[in-house]
Write a structure and sequence with these properties.
Layout (H helix, E strand, L loop, with lengths): L11 H4 L4 E5 L3 H17 L3 E5 L10 H4 L9 E4 L6 E3 L2 H11 L11 H31 L5 H23 L20 H4 L2 H4 L9 H4 L3 H11 L2 H6 L8
Parallel strand pairs: 1-2
Antiparallel strand pairs: 1-3, 3-4
Helix pairs in contact: 2-4, 5-6, 6-10
Length: 244
């Protein structure tokens, strides 16, 4: 694996890295892994190095990057503690990899199998049903050269629908017990299910949704604010990940 992992085009910061290395840009997907690493730093003193790329220049489509992630998407983890170095793509897989390899006390995961299943359900729900819709809302509403009303309306409505699913769960509509977090017994525990969801949902205004649009989701809005106050979340979305 390692003999073909790097080329002359690979940035020196990537091929000379030791330990955990993150290749990222501070988009919602990048922020998922940035936040978890910052959380792990607070608990375990986890160390890693970072290479920043600009996806607007299609750096992630170059051969050096595709060797690390053939899908050409950020972020990517390269774990140089493994021999040969082990690469991890797809944000949910990266969060789960860091849980297994670093979070030995399950501070951001669960030991109970049912709670762990619930965590996976909500992590995968957003990965498969939330991020794709909100991403397409961004594309057709903000970036597409041709404005297609049907596409804009469809993906806006689907994004609001999945916000509604999160609201049902957090409000305790069918359980009678409101929740603070997506997974775990009782009111739940802050976990990778939240980390994998929050960076997208908190950006609802960037996606073109007004405060009036999200007014039907009061528990979701409280959840956004609750997570935003965490020091590691502030660092993981902060200026350190916005190189000049």
């Amino acid at each position: 694996m390692s003999h073909s992992l790097y080329t002359d085009e690979t940035p020196a910061s990537v091929k000379e890295a030791k330990g955990l290395h993150l290749i990222t840009q501070s988009t919602p997907n990048g922020q998922k892994v940035q936040i978890l690493l910052e959380e792990l730093k607070d608990v375990y003193k986890t160390e890693w190095t970072t290479t920043f790329i600009n996806i607007m220049t299609n750096e992630q489509k170059k051969d050096w990057f595709l060797r690390l992630n053939p899908n050409g998407r950020i972020p990517v983890i390269v774990d140089n503690t493994q021999s040969p170095p082990f690469t991890v793509m797809e944000t949910s897989a990266e969060l789960l990899y860091l849980l297994k390899e670093v979070d030995k006390e399950d501070k951001f995961g669960f030991k109970d199998e049912f709670e762990r299943s619930q965590c996976l359900q909500w992590l995968f729900f957003w990965h498969g049903s939330g991020a794709p819709y909100q991403g397409q809302t961004n594309h057709f509403g903000k970036f597409a050269k041709e404005k297609i009303p049907y596409a804009i309306e469809r993906f806006r409505n689907e994004t609001l629908r999945v916000y509604g699913v999160l609201e049902i769960h957090l409000s305790g509509k069918y359980t009678g017990e409101p929740r603070d977090y997506l997974a775990g017994s009782g009111k739940g525990k802050y976990s990778v299910a939240d980390i994998g969801t929050w960076p997208w949902v908190k950006g609802y205004s960037f996606s073109g949704f007004s405060d009036e649009d999200v007014k039907p989701f009061p528990h979701l809005l409280k959840w956004i604010d609750r997570i935003a106050e965490r020091p590691a979340v502030k660092r993981g979305t902060g200026d350190a990940y916005r190189p000049s």
